Amino acid sequence: xxxxxxxxxxxxxxxxxxxxxxxxxxxxxxxxxxxxxxxxxxxxxxxxxxxxxxxxxxxxxxxxxxxxxxxxxxxxxxxxxxxxxxxxxxxxxxxxxxxxxxxxxxxxxxxxxxxxxxxxxxxxxxxxxxxxxxxxxxx
Length: 139
Description:
Layout: H1 8-34, H2 45-51, H3 56-63, H4 67-80, H5 86-107, H6 112-138
Helix pairs in contact: 1-3, 1-5, 4-6, 5-6
């Protein structure tokens, strides 16, 4: 396997983060223009949460910096510890796919139980990835 292949899921996650960031920007600027909200009126997170009612893209953007931090670190560990095999790569791609689904749901129709299922599925893939890495490191 090409040693760089383990970083392709990271590239996909960065792409997803960019798409969600662009969505957040479009939604926020659109609402600020439509509702005539001055930028200084949303200078703090408390002010923003009180004035900006369309927050699903922003909520998702923040979420992309929670569990994915462990994902990115796991890919680095896999690469440096020579644990970037087919199983590790498969778990990494499974995490990415579930995050794409989670983001699509949250930035789209935002049905909580659908989003929760995608989130839990991704979390389980991530924990399996770390179990794989842990057993490989301790072997």
